[in-house]
């Protein structure tokens, strides 16, 4: 077991993610401490080269399956994919991309699955660090100029850190992502159901199959066994 000092990580991380914090942080402006919410984005540059794969998870999870089975998802990545991640199960990005959707009425951006692009949830992440290091495309997307270009294209202003970044670049380059089944990140939060999206909520929230990981996001209670 290796413990990493958060302050040290943040110091290394800040120069890489400073530009994107302005677009994907809840606060106004860029806060040094906020950098830690973008750790996954640049994990491939911070971890030792001998570490090639990492599973990064939130704390508000309950496991119903062996984590080793999740690790096997790395073997299902298609060529070019660098990150494994499940879809967002609320219409949060239907809301965030409202202006782009209004200007592009035929778009799949923000639409529900299976045919739409609802965005991602970063509660469960498979980071193929070696693939991230090798991917010229992924590393180009970390550059401030590219972040600025895409946020302008999609009129994007988020508040969910790495999740917003992955969602935005996933709209442009879905080939970078291996989409995990919803049962690997069965989100339970229903906040958006009561905030203007009751009519379409279930299209995002439904998840068939035996749940492997429950995610009690927005402080939602997780069912007992």
Commentary on this structure:
- This protein is an alpha/beta fold.
- The protein is built from ten helices and seven strands.
- The chain has helices at 6-24, 43-46, 67-71, 92-96, 98-103, 129-134, 136-141, 144-153, 162-172, 201-205, and strands at residues 53-57, 61-63, 83-87, 120-128, 177-180, 186-187, 213-215.
- The strands form two sheets. It has a four-stranded mixed β-sheet with strand order 1-4-3-5. Strands 2-7-6 form a three-stranded mixed β-sheet, with no helix packed on it.
- β6 (186-187), α10 and β7 form a beta-alpha-beta unit.
- The longest helix has 19 residues, at 6-24.
- The mean pLDDT is 95.
- InterPro entries: Glyco_trans_8 (IPR002495), Nucleotide-diphossugar_trans (IPR029044), XXLT1 (IPR042465).
- Keywords: Transferase.
């Amino acid at each position: 077991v290796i413990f990493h000092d958060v302050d040290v990580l943040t110091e290394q991380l800040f120069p890489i993610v400073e530009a994107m914090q302005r677009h994907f942080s809840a606060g106004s402006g860029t806060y040094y401490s906020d950098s830690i919410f973008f750790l996954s984005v640049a994990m491939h540059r911070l971890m030792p080269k001998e570490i090639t794969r990492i599973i990064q998870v939130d704390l508000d999870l309950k496991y119903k399956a062996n984590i080793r089975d999740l690790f096997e998802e790395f073997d299902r990545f298609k060529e070019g994919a660098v990150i494994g991640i499940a879809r967002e199960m609320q219409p949060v990005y239907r809301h965030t991309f409202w202006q782009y959707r209004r200007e592009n009425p035929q778009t799949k951006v923000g639409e529900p699955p299976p045919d739409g692009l609802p965005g991602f949830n970063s509660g469960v992440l498979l980071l193929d660090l070696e693939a991230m290091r090798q991917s010229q495309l992924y590393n180009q997307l970390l550059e401030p100029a590219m972040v600025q270009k895409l946020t302008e294209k999609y009129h994007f202003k988020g508040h969910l850190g790495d999740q917003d970044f992955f969602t935005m670049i996933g709209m442009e380059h879905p080939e970078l992502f291996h989409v995990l089944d919803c049962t690997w990140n069965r989100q339970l939060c229903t906040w958006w159901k009561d905030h203007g999206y009751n009519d379409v909520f279930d299209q995002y929230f439904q998840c068939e199959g035996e749940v492997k990981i429950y995610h009690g996001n927005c402080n939602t209670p997780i069912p007992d066994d």
